[in-house]
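Have a close read of the entry that follows and walk me through the local backbone shapes. See right below:
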Amino acid sequence: MKQKEKKNHTRSFTILILISSMLLVGLSGYSSYFLSASAKKLAPPIEQMDKAIDDADWGNVQRLYDELQNGWKQYEKIWPALIDHKEITDIESTFAQLEHMVEQKDKNEAERMLALLKYYIEHVPKAEKVNLQNIL
């Protein structure tokens, strides 16, 4: 009788491990999808802002900055649960510097800060993507 109970416990434990593993993989996949989708939603204002900075259209640059900042606010509470906090700090610090450069109408520095912000936002989904390289 003890042998049968031991088999049942082993089977239950195996099923529990399998379900937990599937849940972990599913959640990892969803978080990767969410990061990619939200980064893609932030891309259009960045591209438009880059052109507006090139054209020195500072009114439009400010409007696009506000749009980008509002878009980021939708994700700034969720991303920290999914990624390293240093990356969040980098993004938020770059936003602050970009805002200052826009206020100063400093074309070169605004372009530099916008390029850095774009890099950080695009980098996060790539870095967090679940793949064999990240696991090993």
